[in-house]
Amino acid sequence: MLRVANTSAPQRKASLTNFFKNLTQSLSEGMSEASTKSSTDFQRQSEINKLETQIKEIEIKLEKQYTLLGQLVADNLRKSESISKDAVAKLFNPIKKLDGEKLELLEKIKELKAKQAEQDKAEDLLRIKKEVEAELKKLEELKSLEIIDEDEFEIAQVKLNKRVNNFEKLYSLKIALERGLINEQEYTQKKASLE
Q: Which residues of 36-51 are buried (b: 16+ CB within 10 A; e: fewer)?
């Protein structure tokens, strides 16, 4: 049952002062977090770009080695000569080495992207926790002003906490949608049951 509470002018003024103080603090914290995240994301993306450039350089070297190997085979076939295993091995060894270097770089990129995904997931959880905390504070204030009663408060609290408690499932659901494993309708239905 909703009840409107009468508040005095000093209470409204104090409430407004707290609101602006909290808003200013939230904005400061948000800008600081965004700056740090942006810097980290930029560094990680720069590292990925650098590794991708190195992979392209390796691919150019591989093409050159494949061309040399093909030329050796073609020359020997033209002359109707047998192909020397030593000559093939001599040209193939650099290919083998370059393949290994390329695999190492691809693994580093994979690790960086995994770290990014973990960071994104942690940031999502933190964001949701902050949103839930803010909503819970509002509910507590509404309860203290007797706008909502204890039962309404508890029902809303349980619903809000569901977002945090089911975070892993909700996050996995979002990933499944992004990867095209489920459609928008399935996503919406499953999300509604978890929130």
A: eeeeeeeeeeeeeeeb
**Helix orientation angle between 85-144 and 9-78, rounded to the nearest 10 degrees:** 170
Q: What is the pLDDT of residues 54-95, one digit of tens each?
A: 999 999 999 999 999 999 999 998 998 888 899 899 999 999
Radius of gyration of the chain, Cα coordinates, nearest whole angstrom: 30
Q: Return the half-sphere exposure (C-beta side, CA atoms, 13 A cut-off) of residue 77.
A: 6
Which of 46, 172, 47 has the alpha carbon at shortest distance from 121? 172
Residue 102's contacts (CB-CB under 8 Å, 6 or more residues apart) are: 55, 58, 59, 62
Predicted structure pTM score: 0.59
Residue 170: CB atoms within 10 Å: 20
154 torsion bin: left (phi>0), alpha (psi -120 to 50), beta (else): alpha
Q: 49 CB contacts (<8 Å, ≥6 apart)?
A: none
* Residues 150/9, Cβ–Cβ less than 8 Å: no
- Rounded distance, CA 81 to CA 73, Å? 10
pLDDT digits (tens, 9 = 90+) for 148-185: 999 999 999 998 898 888 889 988 988 899 989 999 99
